[in-house]
Amino acid sequence: MKIAAGADHGGYAIKEAVVRGLRSQGHEVIDVGTDSAETSVDYPTFAHRVAAMVAAGEVERGLLACGTGLGVCMAANRHAGVRAADCFTPHLAEMARRHNDSNILCLGGRLLSEDEAWAIAEVWMSTPFEGGRHQRRIELIELPEGRA
After folding, report:
1. Which of 49, 51, 100, 147 is least surrounded by CB atoms within 10 angstroms?
2. For 73, what's the count of Cα atoms within 13 Å in the CB-facing half-sphere?
3. Rounded Cα gap, residues 61 and 54, in angstroms
4. In the chain, which ranges are continuous DSSP H helix?
5. Which residues constitute the domain of residue 104?
6. Whole-model pTM?
7. What local confidence, expressed as pLDDT, does residue 147 receive?
8. What is the mean pLDDT of the chain?
9. Domain count, the chain
C-alpha cells in the first residue's frame, strides 16, 4: 500500500517509529516531513500535504502525528474525501476503519509511546471497512449539513 506520512515536531518520533514499521511490512511510505523534533514547525502544513495526497488519490492512506493528534486531524478533515481519525487505542483504530473507512490515521506524539502507536497503526492498517449501512453514513459526511 502507498501511504503518505507527516508530522510536526511533537509527533516526529511517533511518525518515524510507525513509518519504520510500515516499511518493514513492505508498504511504500512517502514522508512529507518534518525531519526533526528539534525545530518547532506548524502542524497544518504537514496535515494539508498528506490530506491533499489522499484526497487526490496519489496515495491510498495517510499517517499524521502532532502532540495530541487533534490539530492534524482537524486540518486534514478540511479536505473533501478525507476521513481522518485521531486514535489513541487499538479499539478506536479498529472502529475508525470498520465503520468509518478512515483513510488517515492521526496519532498523539505526547500521549503515546512508540510501541502503543505501532499497535494502533497495525490494527488500523489491517482492519477492513464493513460497508453496508456504514457506506450510506460515509456518503452523508460529504453532504452539506449531512442531509440526504
Report:
1. 147
2. 16
3. 6
4. 12-24, 43-55, 70-76, 90-98, 114-126, 133-141
5. 2-146
6. 0.96
7. 60
8. 96
9. 1
* CATH number of the domain within which 128 lies: 3.40.1400.10
Grid coordinates given for 101: 473507512
Out of 48, 73, 87, 99, the active site residue is 99
Q: 118 CB contacts (<8 Å, ≥6 apart)? A: 17, 18, 21
Which one is catalytic: 9, 48, 66, 106? 66
Q: Is the Cβ–Cβ distance between 121 and 69 less than 8 Å?
A: no
To the query of whether residue 27 is one of the catalytic residues in this protein, the response is no
Strand partners, 62: 4, 104
Q: Is 66 noted as a catalytic residue in this protein?
A: yes
CA 137 to chain centre: 20
How would you classify residue 115: left for phi > 0, otherwise alpha for psi between -120 and 50, otherwise beta? alpha
Nearest to 107 by CA among 44, 56, 63: 63
Q: Which residues contact 39 (CB under 8 A, 6 or more apart)?
A: 9
Separation between Cα atoms, residue 93 and residue 85, nearest integer Å: 8
The pLDDT value given to residue 76: 98
